[in-house]
């Protein structure tokens, strides 16, 4: 099962790498949390957008090097999309309910 | 927001190097040619480069593993006297939530009764399925030592009860036995497995865990807010849907514990009552407290402060609760759970919180902003 999750993570990464627009969706209700289109993040969850603007994404110490040694990445940062997909989504969002769709 | 810098996305679980300031070693990114450990036969994955630099030989690596296993066994025995047994429940993996190992204890009817988290399956611990390491520094947060997460979960519950903010589901230490628990040996290659078991103890199916009561009928605050936004509710309407007492209590608790993981997914909401026109009022519970009580203040994450409710002023009742916090009694609880190293930071922030709470008309948001500044360079 863990292998399945890892493969899914790789698939998400591959989709983003190819530049496809992706959206994070609540699979129960269809609510779109955020969409990434051509490098732009469009939030439909105003509280999450406020979080990303005000407090940002805390980068774990073990991953700082991959984020130019930044401790926090805010919405305005060029590394935001990377931080959201690689840090915030796996650490803070229930993947059982919220999934990436293109 | 426009992203102008181009980069390739990397698998979140197989890239990067460790560079924690608190780590005794800081790799420089260059791998020397004379490393003795050539191949990751143990499945360290993410941390392999660090392991290669830290240990000069396979023998050294196994010595470190052996020491770590002995220490985990010692921790289990140390806490066994205060840990409960839950033999009547079945252990069911919770495969989809979070990166640290978690399981449910279900009763004979298949109903979830408890959420359990083994001490040694937290991200960074040796039996973590995502981030196994041989080290003591938490890979996710600075100033948090590994192999104490179960104690932090329990301490959060005890502190919540002690200061009159009962928003953490009852949490205790448990000794649980299950063949479903993760074990590092599952990652070791078949060719290496014999040498592994020659040097390391057999798989331990009995583990010390935090055991937290399952909140029936709950959902995450993250999800609840989406439901409200889907229904087109305004901030004012959303504000009225949360129990004011729980909201204030949960904020006070997070300031007291310096929770570094208070994102919307780590609050549960549940039906607590109805208002005059029949709208459901949601109570609030705080779960996942394994990243609270850091040894140094900073990194406070309290997403409740993002809700419209945070504009409310601290009530007199809330002020009285903060004023009544007994720092020394709290320190005793820290000590009993092996978290004495976090007491200096606790004393600093509670003193600061008490001062803030004395300010007339101060709001939840304002207190949170001030508490968030603790430990940051000015």
Tag the structure with descriptive keywords:
heterodimer, A: 102 residues, alpha+beta, 4-stranded antiparallel beta sheet, two-stranded antiparallel ribbon, 37% helix, globular, disordered N terminus, B: 378 residues, 6-stranded mixed beta sheet, 3-stranded antiparallel beta sheet, 11 helices, 9 strands
> Structural class, judged by helices and strands of chain A?
alpha+beta
Write down the Rg of chain A: 13 Å
Strand content of chain A: 15-25%
The biggest beta sheet of chain A reads:
4 strands, antiparallel
Q: Helix share of residues of chain B?
A: 25-40%
Structural class of the secondary structure composition of chain B?
A: alpha+beta
Number of helices of chain A: 3
Compute the number of helices of chain B. 11
- Alpha-carbon distance between the termini of chain B? 28 Å
* Strand runs of chain B, count: 9
Shape of chain A: globular
**CA gyration radius of chain B, whole angstroms:** 22 Å
Uncertain spans of chain B, ≥5 residues at pLDDT below 50? 1-29
Structure description:
- The complex is a heterodimer of chains A (102) and B (378).
- Chain A has helices at 2-17, 46-54, 80-92, and strands at residues 22-26, 32-37, 40-43, 57-58, 72-73, 98-101.
- Chain A is of the alpha+beta class and 102 residues long.
- In chain A, strands 3-2-1-6 form a 4-stranded antiparallel beta sheet.
- Chain B is built from 11 helices and 9 strands.
- In chain B, a hairpin with a 5-residue loop joins strand 8 (267-274) and strand 9 (280-286).
- In chain B, helix 8 (316-323) runs antiparallel to helix 10 and helix 9 runs antiparallel to helix 10 (343-357).
- The longest helix of chain B is centred in the N-terminal third of the chain and has 22 residues, at 58-79.
- The chains are: A alpha+beta (102), B alpha+beta (378).
